[in-house]
């Protein structure tokens, strides 16, 4: 079966989560991804799941011979992806300015916390820090309560990995028109702030500083909220449209609130009290059985284990099995990008650190003796 990105080659220098997640998505879609790690990298191949469909080559880029090998690989590459602090790639001689001289068609993507320029350029950070700067954490949590760290890595994956994937594909498409590559500068802070689009637009309209748990989409109204059930579990209600709200009120035997969907003050508090009391009358499973199939926008607050067994996620192949390379089947995460003619595929399991080094060097014309010498000198 043909793949969407099978004609492209990537050299992936990234570590941690954002870069490897980005290259995993692209590798699932057929891109030939060669992950390049230092021979003694304590992270090895990082998070094992993210190494699937990739090859692994170990290179010491601090050694002139290691840089020379990487430069040879760059001549036939389409993409280089890196996730170090600004300036690190230049010190290693693998920055965009150096590599584009070797391959003007190269698309070079850097994922960093704050971007390649600006007053925060050299700061260190992690997901929680970027979300704090972007105002995301400030709006996460319950009204009157403290801010909360979101349960998933929004800046790393949503602001970093996904934005990088889009940027890389856009640059490859542009190359078809111009014949030349370009630099893709992805800042996780930028990406996280872009996720604030609804709140930003609201702020620009009325100028108000929005409070945690006090906006339409963060629990201010009973029609879009989380409710505790009799067994201490929770359910979600997202009945924003009037017809969904009407169905919910009628199904809960609370028809008197149909016309008060966005009421404020005492009326809103009365509604919340009645709805909270109503949802405490049954267990989460009972409510799911009663309401999940109706036109309400309703669902459970599932645990991760429950989500892993969810029939919709299973049907959509978001939870799948693949060979682990040692003869066993392992459960893993599926690819969310569904293409009808060139679908993503889980072809090979994650490699071990440097598993394909000899193969890669042989492809460059190195003999077995050459490879042995490079290994003795700590280049690979």
Q: How many DSSP helices?
A: 15
Largest sheet: 6 strands, parallel
Provide the gyration radius in Å: 25 Å
Question: Which residues sit in consecutive blocks of at least 5 with pLDDT less than 50?
Answer: none
Topology, number of strands = 11
Query: What is the assembly state of the chains in this entry?
Result: single chain
Helix-strand string = EHEEHEHHEHHEHHEEHHHEHHEEHH
Number of domains: 2
Indicate the CATH architecture of the largest domain.
Answer: 3-Layer(aba) Sandwich
Shape: elongated
Strand order of the largest sheet: 3-2-1-4-5-6
The CATH homologous superfamily of the largest domain corresponds to Crotonobetainyl-coa:carnitine coa-transferase, domain 1
Q: Which structural class should the secondary elements be placed in?
A: alpha/beta
| Straight-line N-to-C gap | 34 Å
Strand content: 5-15%
What would a concise description of this structure say?
This protein has 380 residues and is an alpha/beta fold. It is built from 15 helices and eleven strands. It has a six-stranded parallel β-sheet with strand order 3-2-1-4-5-6, with helices on both faces. A three-stranded antiparallel β-sheet has the order 7-8-9, covered by helices on one side. Strands 10-11 form a two-stranded antiparallel sheet.
């Amino acid at each position: 079966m043909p793949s969407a990105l099978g004609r492209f080659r990537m050299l992936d220098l990234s570590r941690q989560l954002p870069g490897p997640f980005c290259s995993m998505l692209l590798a699932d879609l057929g891109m030939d991804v060669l992950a390049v790690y230092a021979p003694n990298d304590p992270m090895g191949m990082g998070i094992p799941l993210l190494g699937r469909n990739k090859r692994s080559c170990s290179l010491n880029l601090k050694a002139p011979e290691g840089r020379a090998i990487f430069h040879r690989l760059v001549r036939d590459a389409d993409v280089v992806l890196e996730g170090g602090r600004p300036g690190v790639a230049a010190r290693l001689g693998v920055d965009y300015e150096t590599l584009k001289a070797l391959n003007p068609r190269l698309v070079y993507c850097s994922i960093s916390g704050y971007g390649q320029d600006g007053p925060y350029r050299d700061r260190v950070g992690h997901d929680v820090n970027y979300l704090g700067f972007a105002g995301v954490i400030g709006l996460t949590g319950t009204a009157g309560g403290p801010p909360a760290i979101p349960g998933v890595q929004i800046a790393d994956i949503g602001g970093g990995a996904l934005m990088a994937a889009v940027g890389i594909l856009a640059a490859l498409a542009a190359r078809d028109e111009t014949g030349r590559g370009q630099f893709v500068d992805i800042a996780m802070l930028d990406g996280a702030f872009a996720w604030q689009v609804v709140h930003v637009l609201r702020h620009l309209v009325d100028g108000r500083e929005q409070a945690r748990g006090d906006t339409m989409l963060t629990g201010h109204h009973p029609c879009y909220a989380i409710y505790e059930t009799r067994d201490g579990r929770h359910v979600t209600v997202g009945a924003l449209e009037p017809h969904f709200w009407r169905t919910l009120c009628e199904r809960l035997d609370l028809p008197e609130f149909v016309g008060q969907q966005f009421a404020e003050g005492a009326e809103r508090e009365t509604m919340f009290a009645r709805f909270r009391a109503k949802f405490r009358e049954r267990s989460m499973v009972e409510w799911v059985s009663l309401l999940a199939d109706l036109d309400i926008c309703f669902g459970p607050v599932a645990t991760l284990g429950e989500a892993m067994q969810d029939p919709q996620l299973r049907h959509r192949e978001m939870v799948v099995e693949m060979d682990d390379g040692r003869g066993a089947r392992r459960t893993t995460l599926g690819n969310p990008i569904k293409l009808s003619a060139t679908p993503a595929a889980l072809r090979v399991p994650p490699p071990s650190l440097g598993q394909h080094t000899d193969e890669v060097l042989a492809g460059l014309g190195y003999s077995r003796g050459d490879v042995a010498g490079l290994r003795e000198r700590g280049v690979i």
